[in-house]
Specification:
394 residues; alpha+beta; FAD/NAD(P)-binding domain; D-Amino Acid Oxidase, Chain A, domain 2; 11 helices; 20 strands; binds 8-demethyl-8-dimethylamino-flavin-adenine-dinucleotide; binds P-hydroxybenzoic acid
Length: 394
């Protein structure tokens, strides 16, 4: 098999890249290890930055998001029994859109299949070869057969556990990592969200987050130790804990059937550079942020805006300068987003071995951020997303 761009992974990064290339008449093949149902049902992120929603709209992927997504003009920070709203519209004139990642993935898969462009499901890449040449190859397994996909470029959009990053010799990479001593226990519940906008709560018993997917579906999280066994958390215990941590005057949590329960470990991770010859990494394949800043999917999209532009230059004009600049352009944003995600995480969670001083200092920090227009503006700028350059893409 031959194509111009071999894309490993049908997550948001791989599918968006395939879509942007297709709009410029550049052929690609997407290889995805799981079946279609699996990737369309996987519940993950839910918050689209301002410019990410704009990009999806302008490239023809936003129709259902605009109908069903919830536009939010702020978030609530709850601590010490108080709730303070950070008003994004007022502070930075921008919003976020709450719309499930699996819905975006569905919209992207539908657009690709409608265009008659190839995605191979249940096709697992096992190796990437010849990346030092202009004819790299992805070796993959499909329906019990080992096959080869030859391309001019390989895009490694295969997430944190994918094969692309691992196929680069470790001597060419520098890795930065930080693990956190806590995890998130998340539920999806058929219950009316108890707040119109998200609530990030810092409580003596730990962090809690109230989010949503629709006016009838709540997505809720509590901070737990990373070695937590979900079997120890029957639904009633989760609701009780959420109620305690989210408590505020006049606030009533609506309960309902829990339809999904999951545990997410928290980590910050970056590999540099994001390119090895004709193999380019994008999204979770090259970096991970803890979810407290709602940035993972948005950062994957930002990488793809740079990658698409680099590939237009290479494959339309024969220019390699875009490939050369790719990693540095992405990393400039990645490290800012790493900082924001780390900051939101450490400000809102509780460490098991923390001193009473740490707790009081954290409350001081929350007071400082919510009490200062300058500090709240910085939070709003980062949460709604640093500007994306959409020129030449839409
Ligand atoms: P993905 O989505 O992991 O997609 C990678 C795809 O590659 C496939 N794959 C392979 N295919 C072929 N061959 C192989 N060898 C392969 N290995 C893997 C996988 O099956 C998969 O389909 O990576 P991508 O595209 O980079 O997208 C990144 C985002 O998914 C991720 O950053 C976000 O979900 C993170 N995240 C959030 N991000 C936000 O922007 N806002 C949020 O509100 C937010 N909340 C979250 C989150 C992640 C969470 N979890 C579960 C980690 C909340 C949670 C709980
Ligand atoms: C979600 O709705 O899943 C969600 C929202 C905000 C976050 C993380 C996850 O910071």
């Amino acid at each position: 098999m031959r194509t111009r761009v071999a894309i490993i992974g049908a997550g948001p990064a791989g599918l968006l890249l395939a879509h942007l290339l297709h709009r410029r008449g550049i052929d690609s093949v997407v290889l995805e290890r799981h079946d279609r149902g699996h990737v369309e049902r996987r519940i993950r992120a839910g918050v689209m930055e301002h410019d990410v929603a704009e990009l999806l709209d302008r490239v023809g992927l936003g129709a259902r998001m605009r109908r069903q997504g919830l536009v939010h003009g702020g978030i609530n920070l709850r601590f010490a029994g108080r709730t303070v709203r950070v008003d994004f519209r007022k502070l930075v004139g921008r919003t976020v859109t709450v719309y499930g990642q699996h819905e975006v993935v569905k919209d992207m898969i539908r657009a690709r299949l409608d265009a008659g462009a190839p995605i191979l499901f249940e096709a697992e890449a096992v190796a990437v070869e010849d990346v030092a040449t202009s004819r790299p190859v992805v070796v993959f397994r499909h329906r019990g057969e080992v096959r080869r996909l030859e391309a001019e470029v390989v895009a490694g959009c295969d997430g944190f556990h994918g094969v692309a990053r691992r196929s680069i010799p470790t001597s060419h990479l520098t890795t930065y990592e930080r693990r956190y001593p806590y995890a998130w226990l998340g539920i999806l519940a058929e219950a009316r969200p108890a707040s119109e906008e998200l609530v990030y709560a810092h409580h003596e018993r730990g962090f809690a987050l109230l989010s949503m997917r629709s006016p009838t579906l709540s997505r809720l999280y509590i901070q737990v130790p990373p070695d937590t066994d979900l079997a120890d958390w029957p639904d009633g215990r989760i609701w009780d804990e959420l109620e305690t941590r989210l408590a505020a005057p006049g606030f009533r949590l609506e309960r309902g059937p829990v339809i999904q329960k999951d545990l997410t470990v928290m980590r910050s991770f970056v590999t540099e550079p994001m390119r090895h010859g004709r193999l380019l990494l994008a999204g979770d394949a090259s970096h991970i942020v803890p979810p407290t800043g709602a940035k993972g999917l948005n950062l994957a999209v930002a990488d793809v805006t740079h990658l698409a532009r680099a590939l237009f230059a290479l494959l339309k004009e024969g220019r390699e300068d875009g490939l050369e600049r790719y990693s540095a352009l992405c990393l400039a944003r990645i490290w800012k987003v790493q900082h924001f995600s780390w900051w939101m995480t450490t400000m809102l969670h509780r460490d098991e071995d923390e001193l009473p001083f740490d707790h009081r200092r954290r409350l001081g920090e929350l007071e400082a951020v919510t009490g200062s227009r300058a500090a709240a503006t910085w939070l709003a700028e980062n949460y709604t997303g640093l500007p994306l350059d959409l020129d030449d893409l839409v």
